[in-house]
Amino acid sequence: MEITRPPVRVGIVGSEAFTLNECANELNLEGYELKFCPSLKFKEEANNDIFIVGMSEFADANNLASWKSTSHPFLILGIDNLPQDLEILSALNSAVGYIRSAPTLTEILLNLRLGLYWHNERELYSKRISNIETKIESNRIIGIAVGVLMNNYGESEQHVFDSLKTISRNKQRRISSVAEEIITKLNEHNHADIKLNSLSNLQTWLTANITIKQR
Q: Architecture of domain 1-128 in CATH?
């Protein structure tokens, strides 16, 4: 019998974040239920798994302080419009990921999955990536690796990302480190597509090509 997973509840906060309503149906089909939060009070009371917060939300000092201290995982929408304000920058370090102002559906899905991954890792191991540039670069590298593997194996973004999580756990490596090794190894071969498809499936290729963490 097929097991149905409950939807991931995504709180949407901030005026520009409300534009995500346009892709609400597509996100719902992928297992994400959007809940639009019109106020800070509703945000605090809502039972959500993760938030997407528009950059405008941080213009208010009270909102800024609340997000800086919240235990809820949240993504920032509009990172390409980031103001050079030290107080805002320090608050954004609490975020689990960043999305540009006009993201594609694939970008939203990938950042939601990465954000939940970073949050779970932080909760389990009391670790966090506190540098904004490091988070953005890590997400970019993972996104490139996921895209290449999707293209070569014809698998869904969810399947590829789950495979990366599995191999990172098996090899005792961070998922961003695994993604970086994938890109490096593919760049070493002029015929990367032939190299990828020379083995029967994605998990087989990852197992054979990703090195285990050195103790």
A: 3-Layer(aba) Sandwich (3.40)
Give residue 100's region: left, alpha or beta (phi > 0; psi -120 to 50): beta
Pick out the chain residues at pLDDT < 70.
1-4, 39-46, 82-91, 125-130, 132, 189-200, 214-215
pLDDT in tens, 58-74: 888 888 888 888 888 99
This prediction has a pTM of: 0.71
Give the tokens for residue 18: 């409300």
Q: Decide if 139 contacts 115 (C-beta within 8 A).
A: no
Q: Closest Cα to residue 9, out of 72, 98, 76, 65?
A: 72
**pLDDT number for residue 191:** 45
Average pLDDT, the chain: 81
Interacting residues of 101 by C-beta distance below 8 A, sequence separation 6+: 16, 77, 78, 80, 81
Longest dimension (CA), the chain: 56
Residue-range domain boundaries for the chain: 1-128, 131-215
Structure tokens at 11: 């709180």
